[in-house]
Specification:
heterotrimer; A alpha+beta; B mainly alpha; C mainly alpha; B: mainly alpha; MetI-like fold; 2 domains; 3-stranded antiparallel beta sheet; globular; C: mainly alpha; two-stranded antiparallel sheet; 2 strands; flat
C-alpha cells in the first residue's frame, strides 16, 4: 500500500519535472528567437459568406511567405468581423492599443491619418508605378495606405434581353446617356417580365451607399462635399445638379423601377441570376456567379452618363502602418513584400479582385486581355473616382447614406439635401475644418 | 460589508456617467487632433432649440387652379443667415399646421433628436401599458388550476432567455415584405385576401413591428412578476366572493386588482425604464429608418457618439435622457403612491 | 343538473386550452422556424419562409449549415469564453451584492439611505450611454498579473467580468428580500453574540435560496447575452464570447442558413439550462416577492 503510494508520488513528481523542463525549454527557445513580432489587423473574420472566402486565404498566404522569406520579422494576424472592424479600430485607438499593420477601407484613411493613428508609408514612386489610382491612399501629399486590389461597379445585363427590347449596348467610350438609361428602364418595366427593371443593391446598407450611389450624383455634376476647398457641402450636395440627381433617384423607387431600401438581402444576392431583375448595379466581386450562369450572354456595362461623365467609385481595402507601431520599418517591409505582382495576381485569381497594378492584371486569369472580367479593369482605369479625400468623410458618408435612403423612401428631395449639406457643414465647422 | 459593491458601482457606473456628464459640456470628439474646448450649454441648446414661424402664402400665380395648395416661401430664406431672424438660424421644419390663410411652422434646431425623443416617448407610452396588460392576461391564464399548465408557463417564459439580438434577427424574417412569416400567416388566416405588407419598410408600421418583437421577447418575464403578485392574494378572499355569487369580472375588479397594486407599480416602472433604453432591436432591424420613423434616443447616442465620433453630442443626449427618465420614474412613484 | 354543470365546465376548460395553445404557438413559431431553418440550404430556407413549410422539417435537410458555422467561427472557444465569463461574474455578483444588500437592509450607518437611493437611480442609466467613457477608463486601469504590473484591461477576461459584478438591480433585489425577513431571527443571533459576518453567513444566507436563484438567473441571462461591451473590448479573438461571433456572419451576402445554425448554437445552451431549471427559474422569481 505504502509503497505504491510513494511510487505514484514519485511518478507524479517526475511528470511535473518533465513538464517544467518542456515549458522552460519553450520559453528559452522563444526568447532566443531573433525575429520581432509584428501584429496585423484585418477585417475578414468569418470570410465573406459564399462570396470571397478566398480573400482571407490570400492574406494568410502572403503572411506565410513573408514570414518564411526572411528572419527579422514575424507577422501575426488578428481578424475582425467586417461589420465591426472600423469600430474596433476606433476603440483600440482610443485605448492606445493599435497593431503595427492596419487594414483600412480607402475612404476612411484620411480620417485615421488626421486623427493620428496612421503614419506615412515609406514607399517610393517606383514601388507603386503602374498602379490604378484607386488603391493609392494619399492624403495631403503623403502616401498612407496602399491596396492590393481595387473594386469596380458595373451594370450587369444580359445581351439577349437588351436585344429583345431593342436597347443599345453601351460601351466605355459611348455609355448610355441618362435619357437612354431611363428609357431602357421604362421599356423593361413596361414588358412586365421582371419584378423590377434594375436592382441597385439597396439591401446592402453601409458603405455601399456612398460607394455605389455617390458616383451618380457626381455624374449629374454634384458631389458630397466641395472638393475645391473641402470646407462646405453647400451648392454641391444641394445645388440644382444635386436636386436633379435626387429627383431622378426618387423616381427609381416611386415608379417601381428598382426595389426600395427594404429589399430582401436574399434577392440582392440572387435576384438577377434568377431573372427577377433585368439589370443589376453590382460589383466585380459578385461577377463570377453571374458569369457562370449566363456565360457569353452576360454583359458588364459602364455607368450611365448624366452629363458630367460616366463615373464609378474607386478605392477598396488597403494596408497602412499605425502611428504607434514600434517597428514601422518591419511593417513597411511587409507591405512592400505584399504588393508584388505575384500576390496581386494570386488575390485576383482566387477571389476575382481587380489587380491594383497593370502588369499584374495582364497575368491574371480574370483580367488579362480577352478574359471575362477584363472590362472591369478598364472601368476602374477610366471611370474610377475616389470618394472625397477628407477626414470628414466618415461623417459625410453616413449623412449621404441617410439622405439617399430617405429620398428613396419618399422624403422631400430639396429639404433632405439641404439638411444633409447643413449637417456636413456643421460637422466641418465643429472640427475646425479638418485641417483644410 | 457594502463597500465592495459600492466601490464597483462607483467606478464602473457612476464615474463613467460623470465623465459623460462632463463631456456633454465640451466639444470633445472621439478621436481628433483638435484640442477639447469647454462650450458650456451649447450642445444642449443645439438639441433642444425650437422656434415657431408663421408664414403667409406667396401670392398665387394667375394660372393657379382653384383649391390647390398655396405655396409658401422657402423656409431657408428665414433660417439661413437671415439677420432679421437670428433666433431661427440653423433650424429645420419639424412639422407645420394651417392657421387660417397662413401656415405655422414649428422648427427645431435638431429635428432628428426631436423625432428620436418623440418616438421613444411613443414607444414607452405604448409598450408600458400594452406589455404590462398582456403580461397580466398571460399570468391570469396560467394561474388556472389545469393539468399541464406548467408546460404553458414554461413556453410563455421561453423567449425571455433568448437574446434580444437573436430575436431581432428572427423577426427580420418574420416581418419580411415578400414572403415573411407574418404575411404568410395573415394570408392563410384571411384565405389569401391579405395583401403582403413590408412591415419594417413602411413608416406607419415599422415602429409597431419593433414594438411587437420587443413585447414578444419580454412579456414572459413580467408575466412571472404578475404571477408572484397573484399568488400572494389569499384564496379565502376568492372563496368569500364565490359565496357572494360574484362573477369572474367582479372577482377581478374587487379582489384581484386591489391585491396587485404594488406589483402593478413595480411593473410599470420596470417596463418604462427598460423601454426607454430600446436600442438593440432598432440597431438590428431598421437602424432608425424608414424616414426616421424608428429613431430612438439610445440609438442616436450610439449613432452620434460612436459612428459619427461626436461623443460630446452623444453624451448630451445621455444626460438629457437620464433627466427625463428620472423625472418620469419619480412622477410615476408619486402618482401611484399608497393613498393610505 | 350536475351533468350540465360538468359539461359547461368541460366546455370552459376546452376553451381555456384552446386559448393557451394558441398563445403558446405565438411564442413557439419563431423558435421552431429558427430550428427548422438551420437544417435547410439557403435557397430553400428563403423560399420556404413564404409557406407553412417554414415550420416543417421538409425538403433537403442536413447539418451542412452547422458545419459551415463551425468552420467560420471558433465555436468551442467562444462557448468556453461565454460560459467562463458568465459563471465567474454570477458567483462574484451574488457574493458582493448580497453583502451589500445585507448591509443596506440591516446595518445602520451614516449615508445609508442616500447610497441606496443612488444605487437605485443607476438602474435608469442604459449601458449604451456610458459605454464610451467606460471604454476610455478601462483602457487606462492598472492590473497586476503573473506578468507583473500592466496598464489597460482590453483583451482580457477580467474586463468582461469586473465592471458587471455589482449592479443596482441585484443589490436592490437583495435589499428587498432581506427587509421582508423576520427581524427577530437576526436579533436573537445578535443577542447570542454573533458578529454581523456570522449573522450573514449562518442566519441570512440559509434563508436566501429564492433571491439567490433569482439574482443568479437574471445575471446569467444578462451576461450570456452581452453584445456591445465585448465587441468594444475584445480585439483579440481569444477572448471573444459567443454573441460577438454573430458578427462573423454579417458579410455583404449573408448565408442565412448558417446564421440560423449559429443562432441555434447560441440559444441552445441557455434554453437547455432553462428547461432543466425551469421550475427554479419561474418559482424563484415569483417567490422572491419582487414587489414595489
Amino acid at each position: 500500500m505504502d509503497d505504491s503510494l510513494t511510487a505514484r508520488r514519485e511518478e507524479r513528481m517526475k511528470r511535473l519535472l518533465l513538464a517544467t523542463a518542456i515549458v522552460a525549454a519553450a520559453l528559452m527557445n522563444s526568447s532566443s528567437f531573433a525575429a520581432t513580432e509584428l501584429t496585423m489587423w484585418y477585417h475578414g473574420a468569418g470570410g465573406d459568406a459564399g462570396l470571397n472566402p478566398e480573400e482571407r486565404n490570400g492574406v494568410l498566404s502572403v503572411i506565410d511567405e513573408f514570414n518564411s522569406s526572411q528572419s527579422d520579422w514575424v507577422v501575426k494576424l488578428e481578424s475582425f468581423p467586417r461589420a465591426v472592424y472600423n469600430d474596433s479600430v476606433t476603440a483600440a485607438a482610443l485605448a492606445g492599443n493599435l497593431p503595427d499593420i492596419l487594414d483600412v477601407d480607402g475612404p476612411n484613411m484620411p480620417n485615421w491619418a488626421w486623427s493620428g493613428y496612421m503614419q506615412p508609408l515609406p514607399l517610393t514612386d517606383e514601388d507603386i508605378a503602374n498602379f490604378l489610382p484607386g488603391p493609392i491612399g494619399k492624403w495631403q501629399g503623403k502616401l498612407y495606405s496602399i491596396g492590393l486590389w481595387d473594386s469596380a461597379v458595373a451594370i450587369f445585363a444580359r445581351k439577349s434581353i437588351l436585344d429583345e427590347f431593342g436597347i443599345r449596348i453601351p460601351t466605355l467610350d459611348q455609355p448610355w446617356t441618362g435619357d437612354e438609361f431611363n428609357a431602357a428602364l421604362e421599356s423593361l418595366k413596361a414588358s412586365g417580365k421582371f419584378e423590377y427593371p434594375i436592382d441597385m443593391g439597396t439591401a446592402w446598407t453601409g458603405e455601399w451607399y456612398p460607394y455605389a450611389f455617390s458616383p451618380f450624383l457626381q455624374s449629374f455634376g454634384g458631389d458630397i462635399v466641395d472638393r475645391t476647398t473641402y470646407k462646405t457641402a453647400q451648392n454641391v450636395l444641394n445645388g440644382p445638379e444635386a436636386i436633379a440627381f435626387g429627383e431622378w433617384w426618387q423616381n427609381l423607387f416611386t415608379s417601381k423601377l428598382a426595389p426600395g431600401t427594404s429589399q430582401d438581402p436574399g434577392d440582392r444576392a440572387t435576384g438577377f441570376i434568377e431573372g427577377k431583375y433585368a439589370l443589376s448595379w453590382n460589383g466585380n466581386w459578385q461577377a463570377l456567379p453571374a458569369v457562370e450562369k449566363f456565360g457569353d450572354d452576360l454583359l458588364f456595362l459602364p455607368a450611365p452618363d448624366f452629363g458630367h461623365g460616366s463615373k464609378i467609385g474607386a478605392a477598396s481595402w488597403q494596408f497602412g502602418i499605425s502611428s504607434t507601431s514600434k517597428h514601422p520599418d518591419g511593417a513597411a517591409a511587409f507591405i512592400k513584400f505584399a504588393i508584388q505582382d505575384k500576390f496581386l495576381v494570386r488575390f485576383s485569381d482566387l477571389g476575382g479582385f481587380i489587380p491594383a497594378r497593370k502588369t499584374a492584371a495582364e497575368q491574371s486569369v480574370n483580367y488579362k486581355p480577352g478574359a471575362p472580367l477584363e472590362v472591369f479593369f478598364g472601368l476602374s482605369e477610366k471611370q474610377g473616382f475616389v470618394r472625397p479625400v477628407t477626414p470628414g468623410y466618415v461623417v459625410d458618408a453616413r449623412v449621404f447614406e441617410k439622405a439617399v435612403a430617405d429620398i428613396a423612401n419618399g422624403a422631400d428631395v430639396v429639404d433632405t439635401l439641404d439638411a444633409a449639406a447643413d449637417e456636413i457643414d456643421a460637422d466641418i465647422e465643429r472640427n475646425n475644418g479638418y485641417g483644410f | 460589508m457594502a463597500s465592495p459593491a459600492i466601490l464597483l458601482i462607483l467606478i464602473f457606473l457612476i464615474v463613467p456617467f460623470v465623465l459623460a456628464f462632463g463631456l456633454s459640456f465640451t466639444n470633445q470628439r472621439l478621436l481628433s487632433p483638435n484640442p477639447t474646448e469647454f462650450v458650456g450649454m451649447r450642445n444642449f441648446e443645439q438639441l433642444l432649440g425650437m422656434g415657431v414661424l408663421k408664414l403667409e402664402p406667396l401670392p398665387a400665380p394667375d394660372e393657379q387652379v382653384e383649391g390647390s395648395d398655396p405655396e409658401y416661401p422657402p423656409l431657408r430664406n428665414f433660417t439661413r443667415n437671415n439677420p432679421d431672424y437670428p433666433h431661427l438660424n440653423g433650424m429645420r421644419e419639424w412639422f407645420s399646421i394651417p392657421w387660417g390663410q397662413d401656415r405655422v411652422f414649428v422648427l427645431a434646431q435638431d429635428v432628428l433628436f426631436i423625432k428620436a425623443l418623440v418616438n421613444t416617448v411613443l414607444f414607452v407610452a405604448i409598450v408600458a401599458p400594452l406589455q404590462g396588460g398582456l403580461a397580466l392576461l398571460l399570468a391570469l391564464m396560467i394561474n388556472q388550476k389545469l393539468p399541464g399548465i406548467n408546460i404553458f408557463r414554461t413556453i410563455y417564459f421561453l423567449p425571455v432567455v433568448i437574446s434580444i439580438v437573436v430575436v431581432s434577427l428572427l423577426f427580420r424574417f418574420i416581418y419580411d415584405g415578400n414572403n415573411g412569416l407574418l404575411n404568410t400567416l395573415l394570408g392563410y388566416a384571411s384565405f389569401g385576401a391579405f395583401k403582403p405588407v413590408d412591415w419594417l419598410g413602411r413608416t406607419d408600421t415599422a415602429l409597431a413591428a419593433i414594438i411587437g418583437a420587443s413585447i414578444w421577447q419580454a412579456v414572459g418575464f413580467h408575466m412571472v412578476i404578475w404571477l408572484s403578485g397573484l399568488q400572494t392574494i389569499p384564496v379565502s378572499l376568492y372563496e368569500a366572493a364565490d359565496i357572494d355569487g360574484a362573477t369572474h369580472l367582479q372577482k377581478f375588479r374587487y379582489v384581484t386588482w386591489p391585491g396587485l397594486r404594488n406589483t402593478a407599480v413595480l411593473i410599470l416602472i420596470v417596463i418604462t425604464i427598460q423601454a426607454f433604453s430600446v436600442f438593440a432591436q432598432i440597431n438590428l432591424m431598421t437602424r432608425g429608418g424608414p424616414l426616421d420613423s424608428t429613431q430612438t434616443l439610445v440609438f442616436q447616442v450610439v449613432a452620434r457618439g460612436y459612428e459619427k465620433q461626436d461623443i460630446a453630442g452623444g453624451s448630451a443626449i445621455s444626460v438629457l435622457m437620464f433627466v427625463f427618465v428620472l423625472c418620469i420614474s419619480l412622477a410615476q412613484r408619486y402618482l401611484t403612491r399608497s393613498k393610505d | 343538473m350536475a351533468g350540465s354543470v360538468f359539461i359547461a365546465r368541460r366546455a370552459g376548460t376546452a376553451w381555456s386550452y384552446a386559448l393557451l395553445i394558441l398563445v403558446a404557438l405565438i411564442f413557439l413559431i419563431p423558435i421552431v422556424f429558427m430550428v427548422m431553418s438551420s437544417f435547410k440550404p439557403d435557397q430553400q430556407l428563403l423560399s420556404d419562409s413564404g409557406s407553412i413549410r417554414a415550420f416543417l422539417p421538409v425538403g433537403d435537410l442536413s447539418l451542412q449549415n452547422y458545419v459551415g458555422a463551425f468552420e467560420r467561427v471558433p465555436v468551442a472557444l467562444f462557448v468556453f469564453n461565454s460560459v467562463f465569463v458568465t459563471a465567474v461574474t454570477v458567483v462574484l455578483s451574488l457574493l458582493v451584492c448580497s453583502l451589500a444588500g445585507f448591509s443596506l437592509a440591516f446595518l445602520n450607518w451614516f449615508g445609508r439611505d442616500t447610497v441606496l437611493a443612488v444605487i437605485i437611480a443607476t438602474l435608469i442609466v442604459p449601458f449604451e450611454t456610458i459605454a464610451i467613457p467606460l471604454l476610455l477608463m478601462v483602457a487606462k486601469l492598472p492590473w497586476i498579473s503573473t506578468h507583473g504590473f500592466e496598464v489597460g484591461w482590453l483583451n482580457t477576461y477580467h474586463v468582461q467580468i469586473i465592471p458587471w459584478v455589482a449592479d443596482g438591480l441585484t443589490v436592490f433585489l437583495f435589499v428587498q428580500y432581506f427587509r421582508d425577513l423576520p427581524r427577530d431571527l437576526l436579533e436573537a443571533a445578535r443577542i447570542d453574540g454573533a458578529s454581523w459576518w456570522q449573522v450573514y453567513r449562518m442566519v441570512i444566507m440559509p434563508l436566501s435560496g429564492p433571491v439567490l436563484a433569482t439574482a443568479a438567473i437574471l445575471k446569467c441571462l444578462a451576461m450570456y447575452n452581452q453584445y456591445l461591451w465585448p465587441l468594444m473590448v475584445t480585439q483579440a479573438e481569444a477572448y471573444r464570447p459567443l454573441m460577438v461571433g454573430l458578427q462573423y456572419f454579417f458579410q455583404l451576402n449573408i448565408a442565412w442558413g448558417q446564421v440560423m445554425a449559429y443562432l441555434c448554437i447560441v440559444s441552445v445552451p441557455i434554453i437547455v439550462l432553462y428547461l432543466v431549471l425551469q421550475r427554479a427559474f419561474i418559482t424563484s422569481i415569483a417567490s422572491t416577492g419582487i414587489k414595489g
